[in-house]
């Protein structure tokens, strides 16, 4: 392992930014806050670039131990960092996209009264995310894991005076705790069986183990537990419910945390643990099935949503499902590839949506938009690029990664491919639906809104929205960079270039059957998925542009099924009935009224009451009345004498 | 010769009278006199034993008791007079400033 003393600086720089803005931001000028907020993540990005440019596969992996942390018997855990090809990709995505979103936020959050607080949280998030990505052991990764959860909670509930935002934050945190529980148990099992949490140690001990083909061994259990953790963070069935609600946060947060970086942490963790998963086929199958189901399930919900951010949220859940599917069929590099391209185009989509929302004065309902392409042409262009990219139309980024995943899925099991391709069709449909509803047709929003308070919380109140207007340059520039990346980001995947780059991490002892002979099949599948993408586009065009009266008819003819999808399959309601209500009722009646009040409170109160009653009686002995004392003495003496006499007679 | 038990019974009766007086009387001078009565009851048993066993130490003890009782009477009466001057009563139940 090559030492690289700069590694620890990358996470620490944003932490310094968060600390400075957090402690001094309230009293400093906005310019100062902006400078600090941009400088530190910017420096981290520059450093990441420097490391990337000096990166050589021969010298990899790089490492650096900052400090010793836990020494407990045979277990030792350090504050140590680790950089290989996989973490390098993550590092560049997190710092790069993160930095762009920081720039965008300057424009988006410009009028927010808690400007400094926002950037404090955002820098804090960068610190934890980079810790997660660069950790060289599971425990440090877990710290980052929990930390991004905290940052996510703080940023979802950023406008905490709004009740829905506050409860969305809580929901995200609690649902993530369920996943973290599984992750933690998985870590305990790793300690128990391998005596270490260090990636290198654990994997070198796992490598000689044989594949658990029959039945579930310890690796399968560990794998499934890790996956439970990943399901929470990466919003997979059954723990995806927090992500759509997380859209209560500011839009840059949705872009950074809930699309580009944090939610992909689960995919990263599964890919990082690929040594374990490769030897636990059953766990891998579970990952693949959950991924496939999530991809389809979330995509269908996405069709019916009318809130522009909700559509993107369900789209994110669905795309994360793709990444899980890729990991589940053993194509980890394809999953990471999609993670990267997804960070580009989904980050762009969210930021573009933010620009749209900004343009129409805070409105998020697509039914009140329309015709925006003439008002905000730049935003429209980048949104068009991003939509084309996510729909999987070549040669944009999404096509390459999605095609790679579908191909690998087909090799594993054609059923995965069928569902995946269907999802690709649905994805293309709902994304172009979003585009057409927003940018085509006539503008249906409020024309004159002197107060501009469609929702004052977003702080754009002073603009006096006459008609939709383009966002400032500080917001558009990051959009253009991301648009460029969405255009060409996929090209690194040509000739399996990306896969080869990651080969030192994923390849090696488990050679994937790259069956060159089936090249024709690959071309055929590619053709079909592109066809599906265009079919989705066409269908969306028919339904939302040329025959815009049709969707309502279709919805009406589907009846209760449409209602179910519109209401997100009533999953939230089912969870509320199944888990939340029993928990709240049980806590109320058993734990609070029963245990707390009847047992604990009453024990304490009764003890106190008893002591007081006894004292109340005994206190009369200490009357201060000398004569009663004398009386007691005389009586006591009389008793003693009587006893002695009685004894004397007895003798 | 009068047997020892007669003396002892008389001594006990005297002591009991003293205790009773101490317990039931309110007037502080009466209480004081009751204490003297108890002391004298004890003194009587001392001298009775001394005569019975032909040992002088009992009689010596009685002298000690009488000296202490005299000193106590001097101090006690002084206190009683001081109390009467300030409180204008000799009833112990009304001399209760230190009680809670």
What keywords describe this structure?
heterodimer, A: 651 residues, mainly alpha, 25 helices, 3 strands, globular, B: 100 residues, Helix Hairpins, 78% helix, elongated
Question: What spatial form of chain A do the alpha-carbon principal axes imply?
Answer: globular
Kindly state the mean pLDDT of chain B as a whole number? 90
**For this structure, what is the CATH class of chain B?**
Mainly Alpha
Radius of gyration of CA atoms of chain B, rounded to a whole number: 17 Å
Distance between the termini of chain A: 98 Å
Give the oligomeric state: heterodimer
The number of distinct β-strands of chain B equals 0
Termini separation of chain B comes to 55 Å
The helical percent of chain B reads over 70%
Strand order within the widest sheet of chain A?
1-2-3
User: What order do the SSEs of chain B take from the amino end to the carboxyl end, as H and E?
Assistant: HHH
Q: How many H/I helices of chain A?
A: 25
Structural class of chain A: mainly alpha
Q: Of all protein chain pairs, which has the greatest interface, and how many residues does each chain bring to it?
A: A-B, 8 and 8 residues
Shape of chain B: elongated
Mean pLDDT of chain A: 88
Briefly note the CATH topology name of chain B: Helix Hairpins
The main β sheet of chain A shows up as: 3 strands, mixed
CATH architecture name of chain B: Orthogonal Bundle
* Residues in helix, % of chain A: over 70%
Radius of gyration of chain A: 31 Å
Give the helix/strand layout:
The complex is a heterodimer of chains A (651) and B (100).
Chain A: E1 2-3, H1 9-24, H2 30-53, E2 62-72, E3 75-83, H3 85-108, H4 115-134, H5 138-156, H6 163-194, H7 199-206, H8 218-233, H9 242-245, H10 251-260, H11 265-272, H12 274-278, H13 281-304, H14 308-328, H15 332-359, H16 377-391, H17 397-412, H18 414-439, H19 473-488, H20 497-506, H21 519-546, H22 550-558, H23 560-566, H24 571-618, H25 626-650
Helix pairs in contact in A: 1-2, 1-4, 2-3, 2-4, 3-4, 3-10, 3-15, 3-19, 4-5, 5-6, 5-10, 6-8, 8-11, 8-13, 10-15, 11-15, 13-14, 13-18, 14-15, 14-17, 14-18, 15-16, 15-17, 15-19, 15-20, 16-18, 16-19, 17-18, 17-21, 18-21
Chain B: H1 4-24, H2 28-53, H3 57-87
């Amino acid at each position: 392992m090559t030492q690289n003393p700069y590694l620890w600086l990358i996470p620490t720089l944003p932490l310094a930014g968060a600390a400075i803005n957090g402690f001094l931001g309230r009293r400093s000028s906005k310019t100062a806050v902006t400078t600090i907020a941009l400088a530190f993540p910017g420096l981290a990005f520059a450093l990441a670039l420097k490391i990337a440019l000096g990166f050589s596969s021969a010298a990899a992996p790089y490492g650096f131990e900052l400090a010793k942390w836990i020494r407990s018997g045979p277990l030792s855990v350090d504050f140590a960092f680790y950089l290989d090809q996989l973490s390098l990709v993550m590092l560049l995505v997190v710092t790069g996209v993160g930095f762009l979103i920081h720039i965008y936020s300057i424009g988006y959050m410009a009028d927010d009264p808690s400007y400094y607080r926002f950037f404090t949280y955002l820098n804090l998030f960068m610190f934890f995310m980079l810790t997660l990505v660069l950790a060289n052991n599971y425990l440090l990764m877990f710290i980052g894991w929990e930390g991004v959860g905290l940052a996510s909670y703080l940023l979802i509930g950023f406008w905490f005076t709004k009740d829905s935002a506050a409860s969305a934050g809580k929901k995200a945190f609690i649902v993530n705790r369920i996943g973290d529980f599984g992750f933690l148990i998985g870590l305990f099992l790793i300690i128990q069986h391998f005596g270490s949490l260090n990636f290198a140690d654990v994997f070198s001990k796992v490598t000689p183990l044989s594949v658990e083909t029959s039945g579930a061994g310890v690796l399968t259990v560990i794998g499934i537990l890790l996956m439970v953790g990943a399901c929470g963070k990466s919003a997979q069935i059954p723990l995806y419910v927090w992500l759509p609600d997380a859209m209560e946060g500011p839009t840059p947060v949705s872009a950074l945390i809930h699309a580009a970086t944090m939610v992909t942490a689960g995919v990263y963790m599964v890919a990082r643990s690929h040594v374990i998963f490769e030897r636990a086929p059953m766990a891998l199958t579970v990952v693949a099935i959950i991924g496939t189901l999530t991809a389809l399930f979330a995509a269908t919900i996405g069709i019916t949503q009318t809130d522009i951010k909700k559509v993107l949220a369900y789209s994110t859940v669905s795309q994360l499902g793709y990444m899980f599917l890729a990991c589940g069929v053993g194509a980890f590099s394809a999953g990471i590839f999609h993670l990267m391209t997804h960070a580009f185009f989904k980050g762009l989509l969210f930021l573009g949506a933010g620009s749209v929302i900004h343009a129409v004065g805070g409105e998020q309902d697509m039914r009140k938009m329309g015709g925006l392409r003439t008002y905000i042409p730049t935003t429209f262009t980048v949104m068009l690029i991003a939509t084309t990219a996510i729909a999987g139309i070549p040669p944009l980024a999404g096509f390459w990664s999605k095609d790679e995943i579908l191909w690998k899925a087909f090799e594993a099991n054609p059923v995965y491919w069928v569902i995946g391709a269907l999802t690709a069709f649905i994805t293309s449909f709902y994304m172009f639906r979003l585009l057409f509803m927003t940018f085509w047709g006539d503008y249906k929003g409020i024309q004159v809104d002197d107060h501009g308070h469609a929702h004052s919380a977003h702080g754009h109140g002073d603009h006096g929205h006459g008609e939709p207007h383009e966002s400032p340059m500080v917001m558009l520039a990051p959009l253009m960079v991301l648009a460029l990346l969405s255009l060409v980001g996929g090209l690194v995947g040509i000739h399996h270039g990306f896969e080869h780059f990651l080969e030192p991490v994923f390849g090696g002892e488990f050679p994937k059957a790259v069956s060159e002979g089936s090249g024709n099949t690959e071309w055929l599948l590619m053709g079909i998925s592109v066809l599906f993408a265009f079919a989705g586009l066409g269908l969306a065009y028919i339904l939302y542009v040329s025959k815009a009266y049709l969707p309502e008819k279709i919805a009406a003819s589907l009846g209760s099924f449409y209602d179910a999808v519109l209401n997100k399959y009533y999953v939230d309601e089912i969870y509320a009935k199944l888990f939340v209500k029993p928990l709240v009722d049980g806590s109320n009646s058993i734990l609070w009224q029963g245990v707390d009040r009847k047992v604990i409170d009453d024990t304490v109160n009764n003890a106190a009451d008893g002591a007081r009653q006894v004292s109340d009686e005994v206190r009369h002995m200490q009357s201060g009345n000398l004569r009663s004392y004398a009386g007691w003495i005389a009586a006591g003496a009389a008793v003693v004498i009587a006893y002695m006499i009685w004894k004397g007679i007895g003798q | 010769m009068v047997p020892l038990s007669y003396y002892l019974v008389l001594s006990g009766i005297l002591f009991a009278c003293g205790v009773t007086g101490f317990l039931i009387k309110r007037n502080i001078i009466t209480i004081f006199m009751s204490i003297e009565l108890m002391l004298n009851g004890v003194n009587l048993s001392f001298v009775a034993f001394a005569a019975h066993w032909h040992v002088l130490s009992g009689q010596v003890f009685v002298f000690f008791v009488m000296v202490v009782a005299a000193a106590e009477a001097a101090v006690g009466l002084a206190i009683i007079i001081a109390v009467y001057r300030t409180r204008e009563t000799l009833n112990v139940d009304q001399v209760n400033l230190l009680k809670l």
